[in-house]
């Protein structure tokens, strides 16, 4: 976890993510790439790349730099190497390119605390990053004074095409010295017996030497509710889920979410690309 990327629009949500990234950086000796997405019309982007003195473009660059200076002066970044970058990609999908160019290990980004899984991942900026990122994306929904991770839920259907995500999740659990709670949610429309589910999970993790885990089969109305309810019961610090590239996470979510569950969904979520 040597290189962390934090996209920022200088909002409170983005700062919550940066504070978590700063705690991780201090713990693991990481450097942070703080990236501001500057939405400019294409003509102005061209102007900037040709070092033109187009007033609006220069104004926005100066404004971004001023905001960077304010952020970099924060106490919680003391002693951390922070690289500031401005991305003219005009979209959050450009974050994945920035991550690739800088060999980033983890993207840490903020999201609105009041929204549920659906709002967080469908059609949002978060979804755009999650869908295009090759590296895990840690989504922070509120402020964490002490970002201590002791219990991680890893929700999966435990089909063999997801094995790479388990490797990533177990590496993360090792880094945090955390217990990994392997979770398969059973629903009426997609029911598997406990014996079959257990066998599938054991087969899935076969060949990995990670031992600090529990196996859990949980019944609920839909997968989303199952993940949130189980995470609430064990008071998980982090929820990990796999994502299917272009399909994003939409395949995971069928059914609406009650207000109570939305509050539980304020836990941080980390996504692993299959």
TrEMBL record:
Pfam families: Usp. Residues 1-141, 222-272 form the UspA domain. InterPro entries: Rossmann-like_a/b/a_fold (IPR014729), Universal_stress_UspA (IPR006015), UspA (IPR006016). It comes from the Bacteria. Transmembrane segments: none annotated. PANTHER family: STRESS RESPONSE PROTEIN NHAX, UNIVERSAL STRESS PROTEIN UP12. Belongs to the universal stress protein A family. This is Universal stress protein. It comes from Xanthomarina gelatinilytica. The lineage of its organism: Bacteria, Pseudomonadati, Bacteroidota, Flavobacteriia, Flavobacteriales.
């Amino acid at each position: 976890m040597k290189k962390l990327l934090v996209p920022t629009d200088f909002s409170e949500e983005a700062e919550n993510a940066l504070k978590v990234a700063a705690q991780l950086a201090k713990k693991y000796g990481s450097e942070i790439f703080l990236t501001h997405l500057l939405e400019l019309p294409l003509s102005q982007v061209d102007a900037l790349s040709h070092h033109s003195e187009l007033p609006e473009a220069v104004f926005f660059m100066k404004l971004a730099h001023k905001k960077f200076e304010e952020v970099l002066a924060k106490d919680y970044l003391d002693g951390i190497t922070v690289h500031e970058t401005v991305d003219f990609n005009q979209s959050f999908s450009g974050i994945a390119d920035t991550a690739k160019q800088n060999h980033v290990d983890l993207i840490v980004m903020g999201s609105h605390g009041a929204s549920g899984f659906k709002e967080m991942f469908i059609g949002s900026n978060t979804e755009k990053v999650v869908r295009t990122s090759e590296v895990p994306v840690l989504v922070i929904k509120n402020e964490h004074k002490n970002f201590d991770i002791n219990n991680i839920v890893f929700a999966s259907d435990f089909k063999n095409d997801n094995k790479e995500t388990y490797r990533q999740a177990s590496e993360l659990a090792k880094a945090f010295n955390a217990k990994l709670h392997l979770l398969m949610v059973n629903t009426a429309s997609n029911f598997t017996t406990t014996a079959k589910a257990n066998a599938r999970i054991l087969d899935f993790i076969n060949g990995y030497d990670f031992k600090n885990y529990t196996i859990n089969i949980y019944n609920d109305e839909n997968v989303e509710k199952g993940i949130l309810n189980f995470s609430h019961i064990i008071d998980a610090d982090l929820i990990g889920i796999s994502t299917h590239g272009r399909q994003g996470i939409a395949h995971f979510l069928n059914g609406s979410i009650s207000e109570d569950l939305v509050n539980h969904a304020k836990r941080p979520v980390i996504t692993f690309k299959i």
